[in-house]
């Protein structure tokens, strides 16, 4: 089992920045990748960014150049640095992890609200 706990959400003005953290615990040795997804009211959950165990990253087109995903292996934590935030980035942001057997784990989510 893997447990994920997000933090760092909040209210920010358009153009501002936030950094989300996802602390992982449990059986982490078989994790293939971790990532961030988001869900806005009335919309489907969408992928924001992923980072593999080897450090390769992938981003949704809507956040490329503004968001950066990174990891601190010593702390078992994945971060999402979000810059130049827009009102359309408003959503609940979820951390997830997938292992080599394709089991997927999710955090409880953290709210990000960007005011115009």
**What is the general shape?**
globular
The number of helical segments is 0
**What low-confidence regions span 5 or more consecutive residues with pLDDT below 50?**
none
Main β-sheet description: 7 strands, mixed
Residues in helix, %: under 10%
What is the C-alpha radius of gyration, as a whole number of Å?
A: 13 Å
**Classification by helices and strands:** mainly beta
Number of strands: 11
The proportion of strand residues reads over 45%
SSE pattern, N- to C-terminal: EEEEEEEEEEE
**Whole-Å distance between the termini?**
40 Å
Q: What's the rounded overall pLDDT mean?
A: 96
Question: How is this fold's topology laid out?
Answer:
Elements: E1 2-7, E2 10-13, E3 18-26, E4 31-39, E5 46-52, E6 57-59, E7 67-72, E8 77-82, E9 91-99, E10 104-106, E11 110-115
Parallel strand pairs: 2-11
Antiparallel strand pairs: 1-3, 3-8, 4-5, 4-9, 5-6, 7-8, 9-10, 9-11
Walk me through what this model shows.
By secondary structure, the protein is an all-beta fold. It has strands spanning 2-7, 10-13, 18-26, 31-39, 46-52, 57-59, 67-72, 77-82, 91-99, 104-106, 110-115. The strands form two sheets. Strands 2, 4, 5, 6, 9, 10 and 11 form a seven-stranded mixed beta sheet that branches. Strands 1-3-8-7 form a four-stranded antiparallel beta sheet, with no helix packed on it. It is globular. The mean pLDDT is 96.
């Amino acid at each position: 089992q893997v447990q994920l706990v997000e933090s760092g959400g909040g209210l920010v003005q358009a153009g501002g920045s936030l950094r989300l953290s996802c602390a992982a615990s449990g059986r982490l040795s078989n994790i293939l990748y971790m990532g961030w997804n988001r869900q806005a009211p009335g919309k489907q959950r969408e992928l924001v960014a992923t980072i593999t165990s080897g450090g390769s990253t992938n981003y949704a087109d809507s956040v490329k150049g503004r968001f950066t995903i990174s990891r601190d292996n010593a702390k078992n934590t994945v971060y999402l640095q979000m810059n130049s935030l827009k009102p359309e980035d408003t959503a609940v942001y979820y951390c997830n992890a997938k292992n080599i057997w394709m089991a997927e784990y999710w955090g409880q989510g953290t709210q990000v609200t960007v005011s115009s």
